[in-house]
Design a protein that fits this description.
The chain is 44% helix and 11% strand. It is mainly alpha-helical. β10 (409-412) and β11 (420-424) form a beta hairpin. The chain is elongated, with a radius of gyration of 28 Å. The termini are far apart. The relative contact order is 0.09. Mean pLDDT is 82; it is low at 373-384.
């Protein structure tokens, strides 16, 4: 059968994402939904003969045309790495993938990297199945007989890694709060605020947000006069499915929905003013890149650059993690891990978590149900003073007298006697739960002699009562960030008074 195969590259190929290119022109440059992929073959000519390289390219083309571009991209890197390692062992001018090649490569790999062989095994088996020369039957038999442990998946979730794993409740609240503060001061644009909100709300992959179009967002008027927000998010990583072929409707809460609506209104206004030409308004991407041509359509941003944009937004917030004492490390997957982890902690099963994270099956969500034990301890009087200055939950400024804070309204404590706790810089209506939430607001200015210790004692007592009644740290910890903020105010007031600045 192999003798009948013609090893000639076609002059036109089409990636599954829709991008067309000429395989006869090196290097291959393929614009995908996630990023731009480059396939260079010059280095392979050092390690392999020409016939093997041509067979390899034809198999690689098969994957590019029928599978997600991430897979052949990873395979190309693994194949290059394998050839380099074999060359280091003195194996040169490789003409076929033999059982000797497999044995030497397997022996070279360190234990924690044996999964590399597992990943490339399927590629070699497909190579043989397609009938292209270059993979010996004995090599396939050897690969089938080997038990290869896969890569450790979900380690960041299982260990609650403070840099790569899910955010804690306090970290997520801190990001949420600082986003609102920065947006209120004009430091964040509508686009940046909407982008961050969508990642927080759904935890979908960057490629799914990159594929979004204006027409995917809808507002629905209810009979009672209220408005509901719906967004149809394109599915990703579905075998045999083209980009935007399948979409899944998601309900957006009012806060996130209003944010996205404001950004889309601004985007549409720009289109009407003639800034954007050649594209119907409804076909515009929600997060456009005006210099980019994507397989999805004109101006769609690549997923990798959209992920970088999100990271830049969160980095600018300068939110400090109470676990590390440093600025929170951010990448899109951390929001995804957080959605899955929170769902598991609330008792939802694998099917529900798979639906939330848009998985085709439950095999990749079991890590969340294995990691439901809480790692954080209860915040109490002993550790709150330690965590408070690290978390930096309090954003306002202590004031000594009323003249130090012009305008605004007084904030009462709600306690018997209703002693004022400070002043609020908001001049309009605020629906926040006064005075507790005030402590995390940038517009709040607590009095130096306010009853902050009494409020802290109330919050801790309430937390301990809820924990005793529910035996649930998640429910009991709902106000942990507020406790940190009040503790910080108590500490700051004490420092000011002891310095004689009362």
């Amino acid at each position: 059968m192999n003798n009948k195969i013609v090893l000639v590259l076609p002059n036109k190929a089409r990636a599954r994402d829709g991008y067309e290119f000429d395989p006869c022109i090196y290097p291959w440059k393929i614009v995908g939904l996630s990023k731009i992929y480059y396939y260079c073959f010059d280095e392979l000519s050092i390690y392999c003969n020409e016939k093997l390289i041509r067979s390899y390219q034809l198999v690689l083309l098969h994957y590019i045309e029928h599978y997600s571009l991430d897979y052949p991209g990873n395979i190309h890197n693994l194949f290059l790495s394998m050839c380099r390692k074999l060359n280091a062992l003195g194996i040169e001018d490789i003409s076929s993938i033999s059982n000797t090649i497999i044995i030497n490569y397997s022996g070279y790999l360190q234990i924690h990297k044996r999964w590399h062989l597992g990943n490339i095994r399927g590629f070699f088996k497909k190579w043989k199945m397609l009938g292209y020369p270059g993979v010996d039957e004995q090599a396939i038999e050897l690969l089938n007989s080997m038990r290869i442990k896969g890569n450790n998946k979900g380690e960041a979730v299982l260990t609650r890694d403070p840099v790569k794993g899910p955010f804690t409740e306090n970290e997520l609240l801190a990001i949420h709060g600082e986003l609102s503060n920065q947006y209120a001061t004009g430091a964040l644009s509508n686009r940046e605020y909407a982008l961050a909100w969508l990642f927080m709300a759904f935890g979908q992959r960057p490629v799914q947000y990159a594929m979004l179009k204006v027409k995917d967002f809808k507002t629905i008027a209810a009979q009672d006069g209220s408005v509901r927000f719906v967004i149809s998010i394109p599915r990703a990583k579905q075998r045999g499915v083209l980009a935007r072929q399948l979409l899944k409707e998601r309900m957006l809460g009012n806060e996130a929905g209003n944010v996205v609506a404001m950004w889309i209104a601004q985007l549409k206004a720009s289109a009407v003013e003639g800034v954007i030409k050649g594209v119907a308004v409804d076909e515009l991407p929600i997060f456009p890149d005006w210099d980019q041509v994507s397989p999805v359509g004109l101006h769609h941003k690549l997923a990798i650059t959209l992920g970088v944009e999100l990271k830049n937004v969160i980095d600018r917030l300068q939110v400090i993690s109470e676990r590390t004492g440093e600025k929170i490390a951010c990448c899109p997957t951390r929001f995804r891990y957080t959605i899955g982890t929170r769902a598991a902690e609330e008792g939802y099963g694998e099917m529900v978590i798979a639906e939330l994270l848009d998985h085709a099956n439950t095999s990749n969500v079991r890590v969340y149900t294995k990691a439901t034990a809480k790692f954080a301890e209860t915040i109490n009087k002993a550790i709150a003073p330690v965590l408070a200055p690290i978390a930096m939950a309090f954003k306002g400024k202590i004031i000594h007298t009323e003249k130090d804070c012009e305008g605004g309204i007084r904030v009462g404590s709600g306690n018997p006697g209703n002693r004022d706790v400070g002043k609020c810089g908001h001049h309009g209506f605020c629906a926040a739960a006064v005075p507790h939430v005030c402590y995390t607001c940038i517009e709040f200015h607590p009095w130096l002699d306010g009853p902050h210790e009494e409020i802290l004692a109330e919050l801790i007592t309430e937390r301990e009562y809820i924990k005793a009644e529910t035996d649930d740290n998640r429910i009991a910890g709902a106000k942990d960030r507020i406790i940190m903020a009040v503790t910080e105010v108590v500490n700051k007031c004490y420092e000011l008074k002891t310095r004689g600045l009362e």
